[in-house]
Write a structure and sequence with these properties.
By secondary structure, this protein is α+β, with helices and mostly antiparallel strands. The protein has one domain: Immunoglobulin-like (Sandwich), CATH 2.60.40. Helices cover about 20% and strands about 40% of the residues. The protein has a five-stranded antiparallel β-sheet with strand order 5-6-3-8-9, with no helix packed on it. Strands 1-2-7-4 form a four-stranded antiparallel β-sheet, with no helix packed on it. The longest helix has 20 residues. It is elongated. The protein starts with a helix and ends with a helix. The relative contact order is 0.21.
């Protein structure tokens, strides 16, 4: 029985070593106004923060997210603000055929570079929630830090409820469960007799 515990301890040690070795950045995202009150078509701000937690300067520090250009699966549309500088704001995406939604990607590069050890950079952009969004959605925001041959990616996921009430889940009381159970038992007994 010692072998499984040794293997488990080894795996935990390996995972912890991998985690320590990859700690280059700390990432944070502030959304204004609060996601709980944002509705379709509303405008807000995203404040991306990245801090160098590594042992060497970051040569590259970026953040961003992907979005659909229109339609029920569209989510957030980013735009520049006066506060966006000195960050580099770039939107890339395929050219969709007419009438088809494209998937674009926003990339923010934190400037100036390099980002010294312990230093923090902030990029602020505006966004509009798609008026065509089908319903509540989860948006994934990505951060990347590069120092020498080390790269760390951090993903943050946020739910945007869009003011929609949570879906109703039908429930039955214990009384109704007993009645339904009795009904099904009676039907089964009749089926067996025939």
């Amino acid at each position: 029985m010692r072998i499984p515990s040794i293997v488990l301890i080894g795996l935990i040690s390996f995972a912890a070593a991998e985690l320590r070795a990859g700690e280059l950045i700390a990432a944070d995202l502030q959304i204004t106004p609060d996601r709980e009150v944002i509705g379709r078509g509303d405008v807000g701000q995203l404040e991306f923060r990245v801090r160098n937690t590594g042992k060497a300067p970051l040569e590259i520090a970026t953040a961003g997210f992907t979005f659909r250009t229109f339609g029920p699966q569209s989510t957030l549309f980013p735009f520049r603000l006066g506060d966006t500088e000195p960050c580099f704001f770039a939107v890339e995406g395929p050219s969709p055929r007419p009438g088809e939604p494209g998937i674009n990607g926003l990339t923010l590069s934190f400037l100036p570079r390099p980002v010294a050890v312990g230093e923090e950079r902030v990029c602020t952009i505006g966004f509009q929630v798609s008026p065509d969004a089908a319903g509540p959605f989860v948006q994934r925001f990505s951060f990347t830090g590069v120092s020498g041959s080390q790269t760390q990616n951090v993903a943050l996921h946020f739910v945007f409820p869009l003011g929609d009430p949570p879906p109703l889940v039908p429930t039955l009381s214990l009384h109704w469960l007993w009645l339904l159970g009795g009904l099904f038992a009676g039907i089964a007994a009749l089926a067996i007799r025939r």
